[in-house]
């Protein structure tokens, strides 16, 4: 990964490498990532949701996000992934790229 990118850009790049297992779109473009916060001590808080509360990857996807971000960006000391359903995910959260990929545009 190019070190000249900001830490947030690099985190987003990692998030774009994680795909929803039921939809062939990455979780960032799908709109599952609500917020990425970075503290001065290189601690990262990621607020995310799932397409539905009873999504089959409710246990594994947040863990995958945490492990990938922490392992792929060395200077990050800690990753906290917060799962929320407020607001509930909807198609409006998807990027145009994701909508195009899914034939919704």
UniProtKB/TrEMBL annotation:
Matches recorded under PANTHER family: FE-S PROTEIN MATURATION AUXILIARY FACTOR YITW
Segments traversing the membrane: none
Segments forming domain MIP18 family-like: 8-80
InterPro entries according to UniProt: Fe-S_Maturation_MIP18, FSCA_dom_sf, MIP18-like
Pfam (any one): FeS_assembly_P
Lineage: Bacteria, Pseudomonadati, Bacteroidota, Flavobacteriia, Flavobacteriales
Protein name from the UniProt record: MIP18 family-like domain-containing protein
Organism the protein comes from: Blattabacterium cuenoti BPAA
């Amino acid at each position: 990964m190019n070190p000249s990118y900001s830490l947030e850009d690099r985190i987003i790049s990692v998030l774009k490498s994680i795909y929803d297992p039921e939809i062939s779109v990455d979780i960032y473009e799908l709109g599952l990532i609500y917020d990425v916060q970075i503290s001065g001590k290189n601690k990262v808080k990621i607020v995310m949701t799932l397409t539905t509360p009873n999504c089959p990857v409710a246990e594994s996807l947040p863990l995958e996000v945490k492990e990938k971000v922490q392992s792929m960006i060395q200077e990050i000391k800690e990753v906290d992934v917060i799962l929320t359903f407020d607001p509930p995910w909807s198609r409006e959260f998807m990027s145009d790229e994701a909508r195009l990929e899914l034939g919704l545009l």
